[in-house]
Amino acid sequence: MAYTVLARRYRSRTFDEIVGQEAIARTLRNAIEQERVAQAYLFIGTRGVGKTSTARVFAKALNGGTPEVDEAIMAGRDTDVIEIDAASNSKVEEARDLIANCIYRPLRGRFKIYIIDEVHMLSNHAFNALLKTLEEPPEHVKFILCTTEAHKVPATIQSRCQRFDFRNISTADIAEHLGKVVEQESLKADEEVLLAIARLGNGSMRDALSLLDRLMAACPNDDPMTMQALEELLGLPDRELISGLVDRIAAGQTGEVLEQAEVLLSRGIAQDQLIQALVERFRDLLLICACGPETSLLELSGTWRQQTIEQSRQFDEAGIIHLIALCENVQQMTRTSSVPRVLLDALLVRLALSETVVDVAGLLAGNATVAAGAPRRKK
User: Fold this and answer.
1) Which CATH number fits domain 171-234: 3.90.650.10, 3.90.1170.20, 1.20.120.430, 1.10.8.60?
2) What 3-state class would DSSP assign to 361?
């Protein structure tokens, strides 16, 4: 997902603003304070978790000092902090140019700092050229290598770097940051919307900010951002309809299950999306059944959380696991089947009849405890 205006505007500018990577920020800040800065660093993590932002904050802490220099570093246009996209500068000639320029001292800062993004994209010859510089680097040069695929970075390069693994940012941390962004933009958003966007970000702050930016553009300034607006914008299944579908599955109403699914599909929801929405709903119910209604693992709030707790009383852990397994199997099959709608309808009926199927299986096996041991719904 590309950077948006919002994602650029709310990049971290100090160590204290780095979200979800507090241990790394603290370690880098301590290294500067104790004058134990290494010659080269390797930042590893999935997209949007703060690798490049942290590299810029680190470079600013090393070379900054005036508003002009600080702004230039954070914007990626400082003369002493050179940012290189390895995806478009992967050739050995470009690496040699980089090495040749290393000998020149920085113009106004303490160090000449090279931030190489997606470093795994360098060619083998370019890596060999970079290795020679890392083996005997000038004292005034620092390297910060960023990558999403650490296994593609040669071990000889990694062994000469201090490695930092950036974890995916938690949904709670992303939602909290999104709330601050909305407040600073003088807008309003339901807490459920922020949690939903955070979940859709899949651990990436940049992706979540991009989604929030799209939602801001879709909603009038005076109106709060709602789940309905988010569902319409992204084409997500209506969660109320999904909840109603789950209620009908719990009641074993096969005909109404198929009719409810048809309503969702008629609104343009893809079959794969429908199955995925069911799996996510079953997961929420499983968390409540397994961990209790107060669990922090359930990333829902307000009325919707209470409705989910009420719905969970119709299920138990064993039954929900069975339903999730059925959905997962059929979801894979529909991607290659020539009759995916038939498979979907069969899945929905099977979900509604799963308790009956288990009971029959237990009777045929001559084991009455099988049926009682794996109920789909609570009695």
Assistant:
1) 1.10.8.60
2) helix
**Residue 174: its pLDDT value, please?**
94
User: What confidence category does residue 113 fall into, taking pLDDT thresholds of 50, 70 and 90?
Assistant: very high
How far is the CA of 325 from the CAs of 153, 170, 322, in angstroms?
37, 26, 5
* CATH number of this structure's domain 239-373, picked from the four choices 3.40.50.300, 3.40.50.2300, 1.10.155.10, 1.20.272.10: 1.20.272.10
Domain ranges of the chain: 21-165, 171-234, 239-373
State the pairing for strand pair 112-117/141-147.
parallel
List the structure tokens of 318: 């064993």
**Digit-coded pLDDT (tens) for 343-368:** 999 999 999 998 654 444 444 455 54
Rounded distance, CA 65 to CA 68, Å?
8
* pTM given for the model: 0.82
What is the rounded radius of gyration, in angstroms, for the C-alpha atoms of the chain?
A: 26
CA 339 – CA 214 distance, rounded (Å)? 35
